[in-house]
Amino acid sequence: MATKKKMDLLTAVEKMNHLFDSNKQLLYVQKVRSYNLDKDDEIMLILFSHLFVNNCDDNIGFHDIDFLFDNKRHWRLQKSQLEGGSYVLLEEHLIENNNSDGFSDRESFRMTNQAKRELFSELGLAALRKNAKGRDVIKSEKIAPKKLFYGEKVSEQIAELEKLLEEETYNGIRTRMKETGFRCGFTCLFYGEPGTGKTETVLQLAKQTGRDIMQVNISQIKSMWVGESEKNIKQLFDDYRARAMESELTPILLFNEADAIINKRREGAERAVDKMENSIQNIILQEMETLDGILIATTNLAQNMDKAFERRFLYKIKFEKPTIEARMSMWQEMIPALGEEDSRALALKYDFSGGQIENIARHYAIGNILHGCSDDIVKELSAYCDSEKLQSKETRRIGF
Q1: Which of 208, 228, 236, 266 pairs as cysteine with 274 (C-beta 3.0–4.6 A)?
Q2: Contact between 372 and 344 (Cβ < 8 Å)
Q3: What angle do CA 26, 32, 37 make, to 5 degrees?
């Protein structure tokens, strides 16, 4: 059995050598050969490549590797080098240890970002994005159209931004900005209270202009592992540039609920976490300076924003709670059975955001499904409105 296993492996190695010799023009082949690895180490690197690209596997354990070694003594040596950090692929920064709760896992490995960039650039970074940490791509054609209601000032600002993002206008302005020596990236900040339509506006702008959205999950970007967060944020912008070059229309890079990364930097930071936060912010600020694309950030806490970020946002749009007229329109749009007078009564009584009105409309729709239509719509809606805001509990002073 051992002899057959060894013969199968030798056959696989011969086939791999033949494939490499027959495809010397491929960048992947050229890069692997440029590392001047011995055959065992080269096969190991090819195995890591296969598992990453074809299986999206970034968690390679010893059980994934041991079949390569028929000679147990040789395998014990390789395993010892992997555990001790002296294995050639580790030393050449082609693979690295995974980490768990901030500690290096000596029995779990992955390809480094450096190796992925060097070896898989011909794939257009598609393989990298399959396993990209902290980002999701929202295709424009998958976004459901939705009618939004703004005040007059915000409506004008959104209309101008939509016109800017139309491809012909966008390319024309971008070219002119480059010719005059200005930065050609478009950076926008949507700020205001929760539920006022900031995120939905980004989605509808993308839908109307045919642009995909690359959405950043900030909590996944941050890592307990020292230096990992900085790598993640750099890789994020690298991936965005690659996607922008590949796409027919430049996508939108969305930092949703960006309070955690655009807040005031900590002066004289001593703790490792504070230093990491400052480092992430500095990287983002540098990337915004050289951005050739579209970045939109949303925040509920603009008052906490660092002045350096404030200067780098070209467009700043404040989303305010809707006016009475806008609330009336929302009620009627979301619940067509409501008459004008009833809509006005609800709009006057409840100073709700669009998100809150949508919540109530959903409650009403679910109630209709479960119990049938109500004889008194306004009474039912008022009950939902009263329960929408959490009741604040009375606080008692200690000792009384």
Answers
A1: 266
A2: no
A3: 155
Q: Does the domain made of 2-131 have the CATH classification 1.10.10?
A: yes
Question: How far is the C-alpha of 400 from the C-alpha of 396, rounded, in Å?
Answer: 7
Query: How would you list the strands of the sheet with 60-61, edge to edge?
Result: 60-61, 103-111, 95-100
CA distance 229 to 216: 13
Report the alpha-carbon distance of residue 96 to residue 93 in Å, rounded: 7
Burial status of residue 87 (CB atoms within 10 A of its CB: 0-12, 13-18, 19 or more): buried
Backbone angles phi, psi at 107, to 5 degrees: -115, 10
Q: Which one, of 210, 222, 239, 5, lies nearest residue 121 by Cα? A: 239
Strand order in the sheet with 186-192: 135-138, 213-216, 252-255, 294-299, 186-192, 315-319
Closest CA to 225 of 284, 265, 283, 273: 273
Query: Where do the structural domains in the chain lie, given as residue ranges?
Result: 2-131, 137-319, 324-388
**pLDDT greater than 60 at residue 400:** no
CATH topology agreement for domains 2-131 and 137-319: no
**Do strands 60-61 and 186-192 pair parallel, antiparallel, or not at all (unpaired)?**
unpaired
* Ordered DSSP codes for 154-168: HHHHHHHHHHHHSHH
Class for the domain spanning 137-319? alpha beta
pLDDT of residue 213: 95
- Give CA 104 to chain center in angstroms: 25
Neighbours of 175 (CB within 10 A): 11
Q: How far, CA to CA in Å, does 148 sit from each of 30, 145, 316? A: 53, 10, 19
Does the pLDDT at position 396 exceed 50? no
Q: What is the pLDDT of residue 328?
A: 92
Instruction: Give 144-169 pLDDT, tens digit per residue.
Output: 998 898 888 999 999 999 999 999 99
What distance in Å separates the CA atoms of residue 89 and residue 39, rounded to the nearest whole number?
A: 13
* Strand, helix or coil for residue 113: helix
The SS3 assignment for 328 reads helix
One-letter amino acid of 7: M
- β-pairing, 60-61 vs 252-255, is unpaired
> Residues 78-107: what's their mean pLDDT?
83
Measured CA to CA, the distance from residue 347 to residue 325 in angstroms comes to: 8
Strand partners, 319: 192
